[in-house]
Amino acid sequence: MNKSLFALALGTFALGIAEFVIMAILGNVAEGVGISISQAGHFISAYALGVTVGAPFLLFARKMPLKKIMMILAALIMVGNTLAAVATGYWGLLAARFISGLPHGCYFGVGAIVAQRLSAPGKEAAAVSMVIAGMTVATIVGVPIGTVFSEYLSWRLTFAFVALSGAVAFIGIHAWIGDVGKVKDTGFKGQFKFLRSAAPWLIFAGPLFGQAGLYCWYSYIDPLMTGVAGFAPADMTWLMVVAGLGIFAGNIIGGRCAVTHNRAFVAALVQGTSMITLVLIYFFVWDKAAAVVLMVIGAAQLFASGGPLQSLIIKYSTGGELLGGSLIQMSYNLGNAISAWLGGMVIAAGYGCRPAVLAGLPLTLIGTVLLIVLYRRYER
């Protein structure tokens, strides 16, 4: 990985911790704030809603140099997570999580454009996957470190760690990324022209619905692995390392498959097979060995479609690349918010964490079908 892509990956590393560590420390945060697990799930949704709200703001930054945009976003990562570290009470932390999510979609959207400009012809999807790899490394290294902070010191130090990671990303982008120019300004209205085609809507809707099933499971992996599988709370540290290895492998494999195979087909295959994984988790999560194996497979499927779809949207958003690149992340995280809410509803109704695993299956089926339509109509 060259230094420029590494600098971009530093930011996704910070974002990866911010997004995923909450799922590993949900019990500690709930206890610290004095709320229930289902209420603590709102912190997951708040972050995802921040991503959704923040993504369209790139419309107002379309005339700025791409490097400057990336530096502003890295600074916002630092600010949002600093606020989370010092938040007092439920509402304060909820607001901080919302602010922390604001730069997420924008960072990935602009980062994908910068990565493609830095890549060799035909290697665009692989370059984007290398940037996303920062997030997957976060699940191997960053999330476990954050989990240790929360388990043995304070969950506030976990968010302080994310803020520090954002600061390092800011320095890396400033030092290692040169001038990569701006996107072509097609005017405010011109940013929306690509949305006249059905193809980008299919790309957005695929992960919006398709990820819901996986996140109904992964959002509550802490109580599922400790309360159902029978692991001790302290085991969540090494379990998050193992899950992170699955996420890392899924991202790399998905990106490489997208170089030699159709990107829409790869994404549809990933989401389609994830439904099988979720059913197996539901039936076998009580067995520790099976729970770990299925966790790795499901974690890999979480990220295997990211590189293919993030690079594919650039192809179908000519004239509105900033908006397209951020909207795909908005789709992923809006799906995350819906799934965290849906899973929380199942838990709050008294059914427990295990049935929540299946709550998003109908949505995943819809997302898979939409990606198959994308492949057959536009990509085959």
How much strand content do the residues show?
Answer: under 5%
**What is the number of strand segments?**
0
Number of domains: 1
Shape: globular
The N- and C-terminal alpha carbons lie at a distance of 31 Å
CATH topology: Growth Hormone, Chain: A
Number of helices: 17
Rounded to an integer in angstroms, the radius of gyration calculated over CA atoms is 19 Å
Question: Topology as H/E string?
Answer: HHHHHHHHHHHHHHHHH
The assigned structural class equals mainly alpha
Q: In CATH terms, what is the architecture?
A: Up-down Bundle
Portion of residues in helices? over 70%
Secondary-structure map with pairings?
Blueprint lengths: L2 H22 L1 H8 L3 H18 L11 H21 L2 H30 L5 H29 L2 H22 L10 H4 L7 H21 L2 H7 L8 H25 L2 H22 L3 H17 L1 H10 L5 H28 L4 H4 L4 H19 L1
Helix pairs in contact: 1-4, 1-5, 1-6, 1-7, 2-3, 3-5, 3-15, 4-5, 4-7, 5-6, 5-15, 6-7, 6-11, 6-14, 9-12, 9-13, 9-15, 9-17, 11-12, 11-13, 12-13, 12-14, 12-17, 14-15
